[in-house]
Design goal:
Helices cover 80% and strands 0% of the residues. The chain is elongated, with a radius of gyration of 16 Å. α1 packs antiparallel against α4, α2 packs antiparallel against α3 and α3 runs antiparallel to α4. It is built from four helices and no strands.
């Protein structure tokens, strides 16, 4: 199995994972609950998956010797995907000036995760549209 195959299969895993995290957060919101340690632990696992995916993508980029048409959008999606969950986590942390209600935290993570799912799906689509880099 080539590195490109691993990158492709992990992208499907990332899509499924982000969708599940979005549904989980929406269920928490519907039950009038905030995110808990279990949810945040799963977010950390998902973020590590996205970072591994980005590293594999960077290695593939170096191996192919540069960008081909439409690959810049794929890279943009990957960079943005790796930043979404840390941004939401940082935004929702309580400070003396701003306290985010637990239910709001749930829907923010849900919306961000479902947006992230769409972003991963677009990244997959642009990778397929760009074709092999050889």
């Amino acid at each position: 199995m080539s590195l490109a195959d691993v990158h492709g299969r992990l992208s499907v895993t990332a899509a499924i994972f982000t969708f599940v995290m979005g549904v989980w957060a929406v269920v928490l919101f519907a039950r009038n609950r905030g995110v808990d340690g279990n949810y945040l632990g799963a977010i950390v696992v998902g973020e590590m998956l996205l970072i591994v995916q980005a590293v594999l993508g960077a290695v593939l980029l170096v191996q192919t010797g540069g960008l081909v048409s439409l690959r810049w959008v794929h890279i943009l999606y990957g960079v943005l995907a790796a930043l979404i969950w840390p941004f939401v986590f940082t935004y929702t942390r309580e400070t003396p000036q701003r306290a985010v209600p637990p239910r709001l935290e749930s829907i923010l993570f849900g919306a961000a995760s479902l947006f992230l799912w769409g972003l991963v799906m677009r990244a997959i689509a642009t990778a397929v549209a760009a074709g092999p880099a050889a």
